[in-house]
Amino acid sequence: MKSKKLILAIAIFGGMLFTAEATNIIDLDGQATSEIEKKPRKLIKNG
């Protein structure tokens, strides 16, 4: 039981470290925009 708890604690701690490191590596400043580019739609008439 003690080893299972230790392994679980190490896994959770490693997951938190990985998540923190991944957010530091990914820098979205200036790369991501919340605007949607709208293009004019071409309407095709049936017939």
Give a verbal description of the structure.
This protein is mostly helical. The protein has a domain of 25 residues. The chain contains one helix and no strands. The longest helix has 24 residues. Keywords: Signal.
List the helices and strands and how they pair.
Blueprint: H1 2-25
Low-confidence stretches: none
Number of helices: 1
Following the backbone from N to C, one meets helices and strands in this order, namely H
Structural class: mainly alpha
Biggest pleated sheet: none
Helix residue percentage: 40-55%
Mean pLDDT: 76
Structure summary, number of beta strands: 0
Indicate the multimeric state.
single chain
Beta content comes to under 5%
Silhouette: elongated
What is the radius of gyration computed over CA atoms, rounded to a whole number of angstroms? 24 Å
Keywords: Signal
Task: Summarize the structure in short.
This protein has one helix at residues 2-25. It is an all-alpha fold and 47 residues long.
